[in-house]
Write a structure and sequence with these properties.
Length: 171
């Protein structure tokens, strides 16, 4: 789990002079409540791949799932470095959060059961998964589960004041 208090800095180049750095707990609240995330991975030949998905914040990391033959899962076989982004699609209001890290596979059945419960709690019973053979099992077949602990994260306050906060974690 990342440290409770990451190194937090405000980038003055992209921040209003009256802006202050956001606390990591505010970013965690946004990550916990966000419904849609954008996952960026890298294809084997080096081209980027971006796709929307749902994710849950649990035990200090973001978690998402995907079928083993989906493009994102294939990309993660060769390169586990990812970016997860969420926020508001507006220029002058809202707050965006970007999380950079390494996607690691979760296969421990106890952890998977806790994550399955977190999906139902956040997204409702349409997102009910059984846990079987180190993966989620649902209507769409088996889904691999990945965890991304933040290595670096950014918060972008938009509007009055504009602000860019960076959170750096040591791992």
């Amino acid at each position: 789990m990342p440290p409770i208090a990451p190194l937090t800095t405000l980038d003055p180049r992209y921040s209003d002079e009256k802006a202050t750095a956001s606390d990591w707990s505010q970013a965690v609240a946004r990550l916990s409540s966000a419904e849609v995330f954008w996952l960026s991975t890298v294809r084997p030949e080096g081209r980027p791949h971006v796709t929307p998905l749902i994710a849950v914040w649990h035990d200090g990391g973001l978690h998402f799932c995907t079928g083993a033959e989906e493009r994102k899962a294939k990309n993660l076989r060769d390169n586990q470095e990812v970016v997860l982004t969420t926020g508001a699609n507006a220029l002058n209001e809202g707050y965006d959060v970007v999380v950079e890290g390494t996607a690691t596979r979760v296969s421990d059945e106890k952890r998977l059961r806790a994550l399955a419960a977190a999906y139902v709690e956040k997204y409702g019973t349409d997102w009910t998964f059984e846990v079987r053979d180190g993966a989620f099992a649902g209507d769409g077949g088996p889904a691999l589960v990945f965890r991304v602990e933040p290595r670096t994260a950014f918060g972008f306050g938009k509007g009055d004041p504009y602000a860019q906060t960076r959170w750096q974690f040591t791992q």
